[in-house]
Design a protein that fits this description.
11 strands; 12% strand
Length: 498
């Protein structure tokens, strides 16, 4: 029998994709790792960002490769044409959006995860236990009960969508998953602030409830949801026959990092019997900082929390997370029996609840490993200190802006976001942002606050220090001066420090 098998196998053309020469592959792989580590260690020696040359861009319009290429040639293509033109958020001068800087620890953890090639949709294997351990840690950090559930996702946009679906199922019952939302679903209304991230509106769209069912509540002077206005809108909707089912509060708004009054909103939701969700994409991990954690008072009362480890947690992209207080309600929103997903008492198919019961994905990568490595290697104290430090740097930038007559602060500084302008026309400020980005000195972004264009600096990277802040301010003044001939607009005084 063995002879028959050997003869049969020898007549089949080998199709393995493993290297033919493992020693050669190992040498090249070590070189790739060494050069990547060098690029992180020496990150300040290169521009934050640089425009993609047209020739490089055009080179990526080639036809699908039919023939094999040497790995060294593919790596050379990456080194010369991909790596130099990345987003730049590894660089300490990147302050454009709320992107974490990643770490070398997270990078090698990602490599180890790829080596395991584990699918975390389900079954009984240790990578799922790693994810479950992080769920336990998050329960502890946010003072959630043992019955709470959690799951890794791509990011908070997905986590917010899933929270909407859990709240929808809670409001309509599980039969809505079979028959659709029906007339009752058409009456559901949700609430968030005018300052909330746009993904909340998108979640209502994708959930089939419609963006018109999302009420966007006015904000106060601190850009926090107006709780009195929220209460009034809920009362109006109930009066005309709508069914309020969800409030999405922000722990770190997208524009300026404001944190809603979570405790007051939680109390209101309890009184009204409404699901209370916190979008903590940016600010939820402030829970790791003893100085900042009090700002999140009330988050422990949420029915669900969405957050991103790839922001302040400095985990390489992507590593979003959803935590749900009632694990059974979470499961009821997504679990779907199937013969090929049958659970057994023993063997690889053992286990009652699999991650695929808690979200839409059956195929799931091992995002938890790089998060686990990050948390275990650095510890929450050190990560919390880095978060505190980024907020201190934002205050430093605030003082630089307030001390400079050519600059104007446009909003209170919350967490680690600073919004300001050069005292000139909007178009000049737009050009300043692009000038700085193209210079490679820094990478701020922009937003609009109360109808005014703002240069927005989001300080999230753990590598950023005062010299990077100084470089940004110097660049704004330099490019602003070039575009105005040194003439500044003084129609309004600087915003007083708050």
């Amino acid at each position: 029998m063995n002879e028959i098998i050997r003869n049969t196998q020898s007549s089949v053309t080998p199709t393995s994709l493993d290297p033919q020469d493992w020693s050669e592959f190992r040498a090249l792989a070590h070189r790739m790792l060494d050069e990547t580590i060098d690029s992180i260690a020496n990150v300040r020696a290169r521009p934050v960002w640089q425009p993609i040359p047209e020739g490089v861009r055009a080179g990526f319009k080639a036809d699908v490769p039919r023939e094999a290429s040497d790995l060294a040639d593919v790596y050379r293509d990456f080194s010369e044409h991909v790596a130099p033109y990345a987003t730049g958020n590894v660089h300490p001068g990147f302050m454009g959006w709320v992107h974490g800087g990643g770490t070398a620890v997270g990078m090698v953890a990602e490599m180890l995860a790829a080596g395991l090639n584990a699918n975390l949709g389900g079954r009984d294997h240790m990578p799922i236990e790693v994810e479950r351990q992080i769920v336990d840690w998050m329960r502890s950090l946010f003072a959630f009960p043992e019955s709470a559930s959690g799951i890794f996702v791509t990011g908070t946009s997905m986590a917010n969508l899933m929270a909407v679906l859990v709240a929808r199922t809670s409001a309509l019952g599980t039969l809505a998953r079979q028959y659709g939302i029906g007339n009752d679903g058409a009456l559901l209304t949700a609430y968030t602030s005018q300052a909330a991230h746009g993904c909340v509106s998108r979640a209502m769209d994708i959930a089939g409830l419609g963006t018109d069912a999302l009420r966007k509540i006015d904000v106060d002077a601190g850009h926090r949801m107006d709780v009195a206005a929220l209460r009034a809108q809920i009362a109006i909707d109930r009066e005309v026959g709508f069914k309020p089912f969800l409030v999405v509060a922000s722990a770190g708004t997208v524009d300026i990092g404001a944190i809603d009054d979570l405790r007051a909103i939680a109390q209101l939701c309890r009184e009204e019997g409404i699901w209370f969700h916190v979008d903590g994409a940016f600010g939820a991990l402030a829970i790791l900082s003893p100085e900042l954690a009090p700002l999140l008072g009330g988050v422990e009362l949420a029915d669900s929390i969405a957050l991103d480890f790839h922001k302040w947690g400095q985990v390489p992209y992507d590593a979003g997370f959803l935590l749900v207080r009632d694990g059974e309600q979470h499961r009821q929103a997504f679990a779907q029996p199937a013969a090929y997903l049958r659970r057994e008492a023993r063997g690889l198919a053992a286990g009652a609840i699999w991650p695929c019961d808690l979200g839409p994905d059956l195929s799931r990568g091992f995002r938890a490993l790089k998060t686990w490595f990050t948390l275990k290697t650095f510890g929450t104290d050190r990560l919390g200190a880095a978060i505190t430090r980024s907020c201190a740097l934002a205050k430093y930038l605030e003082t630089r802006v307030l001390a400079e007559p050519r600059l104007e602060l446009l909003a209170p500084v919350n967490l680690s976001i600073v919004c300001f302008r050069y005292r000139a026309a909007e178009e000049v400020n737009r050009e300043i942002v692009a000038d700085i980005q193209e210079s490679g000195i820094a990478a701020p972004s922009s937003t609009t606050l109360d109808g005014r264009f703002a240069i927005r600096a989001a300080i999230v990277n753990h590598r950023t220090n005062e010299s990077d802040i100084d470089a940004l301010v110097a660049a704004v003044l330099e490019f602003g001066g070039r575009r105005t001939g040194g003439v500044i607009d003084v129609e309004a005084p600087p915003l007083a420090a708050q």
